[in-house]
## 1
Amino acid sequence: MKIGIIGAGDVGGTLGKRWRQKGHEIMFGVRNLQSPKVQKLVQMDQNFKVGDISEAAAFGEVIVLAIPWTSVEETILNSGNLSGKILIDPTNPLTPDLKGLALHDTSVAEKIAKLANSTRVVKAFNAIGARTLDNSVFDSQRADLFICGDDRHAKEVVEELANDIGFDVVDIGPLVNARKLEQLALLWIELAFKQQMGPNIAFKLLKRKDDF
Amino acid sequence: MKIGIIGAGDVGGTLGKRWRQKGHEIMFGVRNLQSPKVQKLVQMDQNFKVGDISEAAAFGEVIVLAIPWTSVEETILNSGNLSGKILIDPTNPLTPDLKGLALHDTSVAEKIAKLANSTRVVKAFNAIGARTLDNSVFDSQRADLFICGDDRHAKEVVEELANDIGFDVVDIGPLVNARKLEQLALLWIELAFKQQMGPNIAFKLLKRKDDF
């Protein structure tokens, strides 16, 4: 697939690298094409394309908003026509102290859906560390990727892209449940950093048949 | 240990049964000693003790508040002297439609700590189903029990009690993090009921060494 990744930080860079390894076409959309992060990515793989935000948005059938949540509004406004595109939201509306969420009774994902006037927003990759995006396997187990969204087809595409890079997907329902995934991210951050477990942790949903 | 369980519903009844199997002494504290639920428990195991709320609270070194969160205040007021006792809070402040939490910027666990003037409150058993309390094993894996609290010794006791009945424990830090565990319960409820995965699901935190 053609994937436009807005942002070249840990999340965007790692997803781009993994998807390239699986044969997808990647264009990063960034404000500054000369930044060290962008240069490092292009040196890593000369097949990476780089453009400004509107170019990457035009390029991708799927667009990943791998940016701080505070940049979402400006990015959507600069993205041009997003109609029909699948928008993946891996952001979290963290307060500056990382202890809480700055949004109540909504989520970044729902805000994106409104700003872009799109039903094809999928919340994904927000309650997981970049280390796990790079390597989904814990001993013999794959980490779970929790996603939600209102469009079934958009979620199927994201599930395939997640499977491509080694994740099992747990669909937690409609986009309104992004509120729960943003809360789950808070728990991940608490455990990784405040409780000092480090970034090599990931959530898994255990399931069994109702037969014991 | 001597464990007082306030409430004889699915959570309290199942915990009592499992801990009895491991040799702990259990007294249920209930409003109505003749209720069908209570009679069923006593018929299941004649070693179960039953009393009113104050008797069970006096009996237990550890007290489990296995009641609706709306009954917490009345229960604490009826529990007599709780000083030195470990209070386990498995409740969730659900809105009547089960879609959200009725408390903001606090948690039931923090309210209990204030009402009981206690530092020994431990949030536990709230983001897990009663089926999993009855059987913690999913294929070959043990479900995780997420706990938090301000008193290290109290958490160690709860961890031992959880290990006794087959759980691995993830300590997520101080009692203020009960807010995060109450949010995690919302996610469990969403998946089990709204998304119709059923009650045989449980969260696991995958971990690995930082050496890949």
## 2
Amino acid sequence: MKVVCTQSTLSSNLSLVSRAVPSRPTHPILANVLLEADEEKGRLDLTGFDLSLGICTSFSATVIESGTLALPAKLLNDIVSRLPESEITISDKPDPEALEDERATLISASGRFKINQEKNVEEYPEFPPVEASEYLVLPVSALTDGLRGVLFAASTDETKQVLTGVHLTRTEAGLEFAATDSHRLAVVQTPVSEVEERSVETESDPPPSPSREGDRGGGSGGREDFEVTIPARALRELKQMLGSPKESPSIQLKVDEGQVVFDLDTRHLRSQKLEGQYPDYRRLIPQEFSRQISLDRKELLKGLELVAVLADQKNNTVKFSLDSDKQELNLSVETQDVGSAKQSMSAQIVGESIEIAFNIKYLMDGLRALPANEIKMQLNEGDRPVIFTPLGGIKMTYLVMPVQMRD
Amino acid sequence: MKVVCTQSTLSSNLSLVSRAVPSRPTHPILANVLLEADEEKGRLDLTGFDLSLGICTSFSATVIESGTLALPAKLLNDIVSRLPESEITISDKPDPEALEDERATLISASGRFKINQEKNVEEYPEFPPVEASEYLVLPVSALTDGLRGVLFAASTDETKQVLTGVHLTRTEAGLEFAATDSHRLAVVQTPVSEVEERSVETESDPPPSPSREGDRGGGSGGREDFEVTIPARALRELKQMLGSPKESPSIQLKVDEGQVVFDLDTRHLRSQKLEGQYPDYRRLIPQEFSRQISLDRKELLKGLELVAVLADQKNNTVKFSLDSDKQELNLSVETQDVGSAKQSMSAQIVGESIEIAFNIKYLMDGLRALPANEIKMQLNEGDRPVIFTPLGGIKMTYLVMPVQMRD
């Protein structure tokens, strides 16, 4: 194999696929990036894969000789990212100066690297094929909004299995994103008008282009509902991928029995699905409330950040005192060891005065994710779930359970 | 005690003195910042002290009642830095609402904090008085240049005692800064014209102003030589202090038997001196060389950063191959496990070709500190010390010992 490409293209694609390379691989070969050069197509494909999450990109390059090469991801990334902008030649051929040298070479304008290559490149695992007859076309912006609104609420505790994922539901109403770690729940709804459904012509064909012309299948009239839980880790990488420069405003999603695949032009992210029944979270969201407060999100967040200085791991609780007469919200934290903090702000309060306490971290996480500055807090009694919603903009619900107050 | 000041002034002064507050204090009271309010002067003084390093600042404030208060440095800093710009009132008085409450109060526009205060405020150690009859006036810029050029070369190994400091020598030639960890040595010379010497009238008087009018003492004709070794830790904080907005272009330095004090307007940093004989480093610097290379500092640094990707803790060595015929410098790193790297650059070489190896980290540290882009490397044989000097600008010498080459 021998290929020539520019430093900038190689570097950005390498850093993308490297995100799927495990830092502690279960098999040594997974610490590599797979480079596949195709002379006929004039393209170089890069792949990173940890058996659950895989990222693959493809870009045009001058391929002098087709072939496949597996190189240590971290080392290659470290080298390429530090090289100045210039042409880079990568080859698996022995160095002409030393014929018995079996190392791969990387040559730039100012110098030359020899890198010990993985010899058993054929052991690099292949992505299982996706067996889906249809795929969804989603606007990148809707997916970004959904992920930004819920990802933070997924559990980071690996033993919680299905809760370490984000639950996606496709219904007639649109696409819904949900994540919960059992203490709080975040839900974002994307309107149906933004989601399109198309059929895959044949498995072996390349996926049709996301433009209108490619719509030869079920079209937006398709109504096949589905539910899937995708590991938050994979979606964090997807969010990163969506944030980098992109050519297309839409992304394709394919779902089969065991996996999901997101196709964004020449970038592909595949992930195993999380098995198991996702909790019926919709039942947790109260439909009626005895109290409602309109708040300035940034002011509330500022106040919480201030009183949080006194909160600690022993006592991570903030007390909300809603004063209906004064139309005032008081935040307070009280500790034995250090002291106490109190912040006041005006708020529009409908309903009776009440005191209610929360885990301050959960509250701040949710407030940071809410996509509007004017927000609504709705609650019943001090031991019932509370919801926060934005006034206008994206449809999002953040539910948090209160904690018991100490007295 | 009761004092009113603005958030921005309090915050910047607090963060400065907090740098002298130990994270693991040997005595609990040292975890506090000392606040001393003087009604007559209308000033608030803040002090942080770890028994070796002390920082004290003073600023004008509305003092309603004189007094002294010791408050936990980290907590106070965390609170004040997060408060919006507004007036802040600090008081050691019991809260009027709860007379038996002995906590200090901090009141801002939006809220109120109660902080458990240190009761035995009189236990807070006093700075020992400085017994110096003279002091030096240094331009801030000269001190900054000196510290930037040598601080990195001081040892971080606490057992190396005197080598954990920077050695300052005052001679007729000016003020010289030196630091070495026994593997490399950095020396910066400040010209004599920039250093002034004045006498302190009496111990109890405030130090005279650094302006020419205040020069009633020995003047720049004073010729008392001295040597002092100051802990690098204290000088890092001094460098930080010099970098923050300052009113005066010059700083005063007092030295007595046990300590040094730097006075920068209303900010004062004192440090214990390091005891022990500093190595006679001047003897280490060769005066004659058989080879000389002119180099572009940034290009050399870039090249080293690239080949350093392959260097690791086992083999941290870079080989320099000076090719006198080609007028070329080749950098190379060779490892068993990973691969090899080679970078080439043009260089003006006087003298015979040679191969010589260095610890790559030491080399990069020095190149980052050299204050010019055109630099000169001078050497003899491959086992003798090598020096790097800037062409023009500040007078600096960076000496590094080569390492033995592996073959």
